[in-house]
Amino acid sequence: GDTIAMDALSHEELSEEAVQQEKEVAVSGGTWDAAVGGGKKKIRRRTGKKKVIEVDQENELEGGDDDENGDIGGGCYERQREHPFIVTEPGEVARGKKNGLDYLFHLYEQCREFLIQVQNIAKERGEKCPTKVTNQVFRYAKKAGASYINKPKMRHYVHCYALHCLDGDASNELRRAFKERGENVGAWRQACYKPLVAIASHQGWDVDAVFNAHPRLAIWYVPTKLRQLCHLERNNATASSSVSGVANNSATCLY
Amino acid sequence: GDTIAMDALSHEELSEEAVQQEKEVAVSGGTWDAAVGGGKKKIRRRTGKKKVIEVDQENELEGGDDDENGDIGGGCYERQREHPFIVTEPGEVARGKKNGLDYLFHLYEQCREFLIQVQNIAKERGEKCPTKVTNQVFRYAKKAGASYINKPKMRHYVHCYALHCLDGDASNELRRAFKERGENVGAWRQACYKPLVAIASHQGWDVDAVFNAHPRLAIWYVPTKLRQLCHLERNNATASSSVSGVANNSATCLY
DNA sequence: AGAAGGACCAGTGGTCCGTA
DNA sequence: AGAAGGACCAGTGGTCCGTA
Predict the structure, then answer these.
(1) Looking at residue A86, what DSSP letter applies?
(2) CA distance B81 to A55
(3) Contact B227 A125 (CB under 8 A)
(4) Which nucleotides of C are covered by protein (CB under 7 A)?
(5) Strand D nucleotides, any atom under 7 Å to a protein CB
């Protein structure tokens, strides 16, 4: 059997807010034999200001009978959204109702751990074994209590995580620069494309190869927009080098 | 641009019937620039006994506007099915309204060529590039005129092709034995599982690794049943070796 | 009966857009 | 305004079962 390392609590080091008021998920009795069904997990959930709820819940990590995902335990709280991200420097803890970028990147590491769990279960059972973070993995993460992980969010920032993996220094510099300039997360996110396209250009414009060469990145699908930017920039580079020596920046508008 | 090598005519060497009366597909002007749309292809189609039809058709290989796939050219013939396979020895041409196993395996090679075409187009356009024979490839094959290729058929016999790739000698012997015994295709197909499970057992029971190690096989999804048989046989082997030295054949019934 | 393949279906990758 | 994520949708892998 495998032990599920539920590290949702590591929020602590990454976001002040996260641990003060938000979805702190602890799983007691975290061992769980993949080959057997059943078992129990206990979810402690603190929402809103002070409410602390304890619920016993059937272990549903293996999928199957799933009832509505409304209030757990019959209480009545609005489902809280995650606090929005702000641009933070490396090591900086976000203050107020915000999450920092170290926390964002930590979510990608968590997904990787959930994928590894799903892979181990699949191997154990002789089933198809995913190589990427799929819907199945997001579903597993949710059932494991990591309700703060969801597909749209993770897909939205994949290329930011890619830069973090492939060129930590460049990623850190970009964060400092955008924080200093007081830019919002959206602007920082946009800015992450350009250095990635430059990296791809040095690898024959093959973004897939760039992703696959890095073990932590290989499990993520290449985002459509990054793929398109690399394609456009490649054509651009080919055209400008074959026509004249003058720089051709017509694709720059896309960033 | 790439040249589509349309080798549907190579039926000739593989099946007497196939070339006498059946879907002989010739593409004139087979060059086609992947980067551009449009263009024309000409399909010459001989169906039934003697009818020969010529039709001009918009090139639809790139997908897009697809009208109904009924009669081409407005004629009225029942859509002929492929002749059923019979167990043939290596090199043997099937007689009568039958297709032989060399022809079956040839279809897998054709699918590989269609996949390569699809991959080249995707790379050219900077789109996601399939590594396996996907729905997209089957659609492409159909539009290229290879209407005798379809997904259910190809998936049905994948493991037979796998044996052919991985152990040609064993595959050939099996064909000779089953032909001699007068067995039908279904029986031969069933018999192909066992030697494959034996091969997997020598590779740590990892069928996926076995498929991926062979370049022509790696493009095919591992069939569910083969995966299950390997899993069962692995558990079986583990159980019998850990309990006693006596052979445990309780999974044999699955073959 | 044995076999070929149209067509269906549950669950996927992808992301929009109603929400806060 | 900027951002998080429920929920939708087109096209997938998988194969059943009405057909010949």
Answers:
(1) -
(2) 59
(3) no
(4) 2-7, 11-16, 20
(5) 2-7, 11-16, 20
Q: Which of residues 12-31 of A touch strand D (CB under 7 A)?
A: none
Q: How many angstroms separate the CA atoms of B176 and B146, rounded?
A: 29
| Cβ separation B126–A227 shorter than 8 A | yes
Q: How far apart are CA A240 and CA A246, in angstroms?
A: 7
Per-residue HEC secondary structure of B176-193 comes to HHHHHCCCCHHHHHHHCH
Write b or e for each residue in A136-158: b if 16 or more Cβ atoms lie within 10 A of its Cβ, otherwise e: bbbbbbbbbbbbbbebeebeebb
Paired sense of beta strands B51-58 and B40-47, if any: antiparallel
Alpha carbon distance B133, B222 (integer Å): 11
User: How many of the other CB atoms lie within 10 Å of CB of B39?
Assistant: 14
Nearest residue to A174 (alpha-carbon basis) of A155, A190, A198: A190
Phi-psi region of A178 (alpha: psi -120 to 50; beta: other; left: phi over 0): alpha
CB contact under 8 A, A227 and B127: yes
Mutate which of B231, B233, B238 to disrupt the A interface (most A C-beta within 10 Å)?
B231
Ordered DSSP codes for A98-156: -B-HHHHHHHHHHHHHHHHHHHHHHHHHT----SS--HHHHHHHHHTT-TT--HHHHHH
Q: How far is CA B125 from CA A104, A211, A227, B128, in A?
A: 32, 19, 10, 9
CB B56 within 8 A of CB B44: no
CA distance B23 to B8: 9
Distance B85 CA to C4 C1' (A): 10
Beta-bridge mates of residue A242: none
The token pair at B219 is 């493009």
From the number of C-beta atoms within 10 Å of its C-beta (0-12, 13-18, 19+), residue B155 rates as: middle
Per-residue confidence in pLDDT tens, chain B, 255 aa:
333 333 333 343 455 444 333 333 333 222 222 222 222 332 323 233 222 233 333 344 444 433 333 334 444 455 689 999 999 999 999 999 999 999 999 999 999 999 999 999 999 999 999 999 999 999 999 999 999 999 999 999 999 999 999 999 999 999 999 999 999 999 999 999 999 999 999 999 999 999 999 999 999 999 999 999 999 999 988 777 776 544 444 444 445
Give the torsion sign (CA, B104, B105, B110, B116): positive
Q: Radius of gyration (Cα) for chain A, nearest Å?
A: 21
CB atoms inside a 10 Å sphere around CB B52: 9
**Interchain pair B127, A208: CB under 8 A:** no
Q: Among partner residues B126, B129, B228, which is closest to A228 by beta-carbon distance?
A: B126
A58, A63, A68, A73 alpha-carbon torsion, rounded to 10°: 20
Backbone dihedral region of B4: left (phi > 0), alpha (psi from -120 to 50 degrees) or beta? beta
In contact, B232 and B249? CB cutoff 8 Å: no
